[in-house]
């Protein structure tokens, strides 16, 4: 790992005076509002109908059985169905958690990441317009789009387009049909280790680039695609990353032909994660610092250069990530789970889940929200410490090395969002030691999963809350799995070869070395089978 990273190591040149226009609040550049966009919708079928119109396009040529004309692709088909209606729904940036008197707001076509006071922003939807349709309507609409190839609704994110980026033209959308991930019934793990029969793992990491970041990145890169068509000054898109954001950014940018720039902490991400942006043609900087150092640098750089910021500081990302919450409800046929447990690092995702559930409640799709749990590695636990102080005091920490390397973050940018989400969902914060998270991962794997260490952090929280009786045996509980285990196979190799200092690796399952002769193989097999009974 060290040698591969250093191969790509380079140092950043010092700041230069920029000739480029800067984002709002960084140089006060004013961008023009674009002309109003025409909503992209159709009335030709349930799953792609437009809530605001009922007339079909009677001049459309008659489609083939598939719904598409002979020489059409799915984008062309979507374009043909589009009706000329004014926007029904809209969204804008507002200061996060602004008081009722605040009038500050920005078009999503502006390049702005912070409010005037320097605080976070949030994407605010026109809830009154969405409320013109009842909960049953939205449930039916979203359900009707699942499992189709209709552009762009085949994506689990864009199947909720009206709640995500209502005004974007489907032609501008960059999607890999992400989302719609497996909600896995952890039958054996739940029964064997926790005495639970209603435990579920939402596999957000079994996705295009192997993590939940795809959900947010399709939204961000689609908006960038639109901004570039509107001739906004966006030359490339950049992020700091512990390995998953960079993978998603580079893949979606590569699909759209947009340059991507990623800042990675040297020697702190897995080889599988490092090679993703390299293979996707990103400009990769391996920087001799940690994630928090990279984050500071990308913020400085994006205020100097026309590079659009792709980290979750940018609230657009969370609009995509929130759809995982809606998907969970959908998968339970709109029944609300009791608990949802999410591993936390930069802390955008816990708020995204909160926001997804909240919107469903506000718009009448559900009548209550689940309780949220955010779990951190004990080696990088600023939120946990803040929670333990009774939410009185937040202090950034120096994040120590953890097998859950993607959450090795000491100064999370979305701390305010996370505190808000947890306070408003009667939430809990837990932490997991290295041994706890690795044991939890190994136990889950032994029941047929292949999870990442971050999911091990979430499972450790569940174990603690079950043991203390906070989560009851019968509670319907969802653990959010955030990345694919294959990205972190080295951690599993270390564990199963029992080579981790000061760790018992109690559930290690190392291979047995055996001579290449029949007798030796029979001996070891008889010994192995000796203590097994049929069906066990
Ligand atoms: C695999 C994985 N799990 C969990 C997280 C935590 O998500 P968040 O930063 O939104 O808290 C991240 C990134 O930080 C991640 O890459
Ligand atoms: N785990 C993340 C860290 C950055 O989080 P972001 O959501 O703010 O982009 C990563 O993979 O880079």
Sum this structure up briefly.
By secondary structure, the protein is of the alpha/beta class.
Order of the strands making up the biggest sheet: 4-5-13-10-11-12
How many domains is the backbone divided into? 2
End-to-end separation: 40 Å
SS element count, helices: 19
Helix percent reads: 25-40%
What is the CATH domain class of the largest domain?
Alpha Beta
Unreliable stretches (pLDDT < 50, length at least 5) are 1-64
Bound molecules: pyridoxal-5'-phosphate, the ligand N[C@@H](CCOP(=O)(O)O)C(=O)O
> What's the rounded overall pLDDT mean?
89
What's the shape?
A: globular
Protein name: threonine synthase
EC number: 4.2.3.1
Catalytic activity: O-phospho-L-homoserine + H2O = L-threonine + phosphate
Organism: Gossypium mustelinum
Description:
- One of its GO terms (molecular function) is pyridoxal phosphate binding.
- The protein has 536 residues and is an alpha/beta fold.
- The protein has 2 domains: 85-220 and 315-535, Rossmann fold; 235-305, 3-Layer(aba) Sandwich (Rossmann fold), CATH 3.40.50.1100.
- It is built from 19 helices and 13 strands.
- It has helices at residues 2-7, 74-81, 127-130, 135-145, 161-164, 187-194, 213-229, 244-256, 271-279, 291-302, 316-321, 323-331, 348-362, 382-388, 415-424, 434-445, 453-467, 489-496, 518-530, and strands at residues 91-95, 106-107, 121-125, 183-185, 199-203, 236-240, 260-265, 283-287, 307-309, 339-343, 371-377, 428-432, 477-481.
- The strands form 3 sheets. Strands 4-5-13-10-11-12 form a 6-stranded mixed sheet, with helices on both faces. Strands 8-7-6-9 form a 4-stranded parallel sheet, with helices on both faces. A 3-stranded antiparallel sheet has the order 2-1-3, with no helix packed on it.
- Strand 6 (236-240), helix 8 and strand 7 (260-265) form a beta-alpha-beta unit.
- The radius of gyration is 24 Å and the shape is globular.
- The two termini are 40 Å apart.
- The protein binds pyridoxal-5'-phosphate and ligand LJ64HWYM.
- Residues 211, 242, 244, 312, 343-349, 406-407, 452, 454, 482-483 line the site of pyridoxal-5'-phosphate.
